[in-house]
Amino acid sequence: xxxxxxxxxxxxxxxxxxxxxxxxxxxxxxxxxxxxxxxxxxxxxxxxxxxxxxxxxxxxxxxxxxxxxxxxxxxxxxxxxxxxxxxxxxxxxxxxxxxxxxxxxxxxxxxxxxxxxxxxxxxxxxxxxxxxxxxxxxxxxxxxxxxxxxxxxx
Length: 154
Hints:
single chain, alpha+beta, Aminopeptidase, 4 helices
């Protein structure tokens, strides 16, 4: 297998936008609309977002974002790997690169919201020392589908 490259890219590129649409489509099958806390492509393209794309042989195969940096924390959004490429460590590479970017930005914590119906995501984050926490930001406190996690970078 050729080495995966990870770099900052515009999420509105056609091949990358398709990854985001694929993730949106999956989330729509897993959760009710009010429990889908997705951000759109224009938000992901914002200057305050670190949007990463994993490529294999030049083809976009995964993406991830560090969004909404507030004070000492940033929020991880949109970690996604094409199902055909799963199991090869791409998600772990994306997550590690996001952590590295967060440290460069001087962030002390990473936070995220994911769902109860995503055991692979929950396992990935737990294996990277993320621990469960209560809701943060504008997330509703009573959403039974949400799981909130945090990792200290200090």
